[in-house]
Amino acid sequence: xxxxxxxxxxxxxxxxxxxxxxxxxxxxxxxxxxxxxxxxxxxxxxxxxxxxxxxxxxxxxxxxxxxxxxxxxxxxxxxxxxxxxxxxxxxxxxxxxxxxxxxxxxxxxxxxxxxxxxxxxxxxxxxxxxxxxxxxxxxxxxxxxxxxxxxxxxxxxxxxxxxxxxxxxxxxxxxxxxxxxxxxxxxxxxxxxxxxxxxxxxxxxxxxxxxxxxxxxxxxxxxxxxxxxxxxxxxxxxxxxxxxxxxxxxxxxxxxxxxxxxxxxx
Length: 266
Known about the structure:
globular
């Protein structure tokens, strides 16, 4: 495994320019500051996630954790996202198996909203909102794909994408920077199993997976646990989705989960 700086970074460590990032009060911009790394997961172009053993998946997850720690220690970085693009429809520019890490110097608004929503839920007497959602999915079972001691793999009740899956914790865990190897081993195996179900059920689609984490500072209360979102990229957004920001799903999440479960049967 290797980690290198992205050759074409979306974020840079410093900004040199004339400051012309805005055009008056209504049109403002800011430098794209942060860090952007490529995590090269192996030597062979043709050997992807599904060909890796549990131990090799653990090594990948350990690399994610190590680079997350390094990024979170950077005083410039306020939020870290790790993601993997696979295939042209997922906007992968090269075929060699790799993931990317982006460390941003701001907290994205969607993360702020999720954090505040979860804190409201906790103030109302619940656990972290994600943990209660996962508990409800496990209890219902109709959208469940796989279950381990610590993690559940499921199609969420209200997915944004067809056959979208989450691999999320069932119990309170340390932040991703502090999660122990035994939990990482279990998580990596669950992630690969979810990808295997998608590969079999949907004939190997392009996909993205995204490791969602809380901000690196000021979110140590556990209100926003980390989890992984798997998104098959089978269709492009059309005019309705682009126009109103609401996605139309042809397949009910319960039917999608049933198809994915069947794909894992021996």
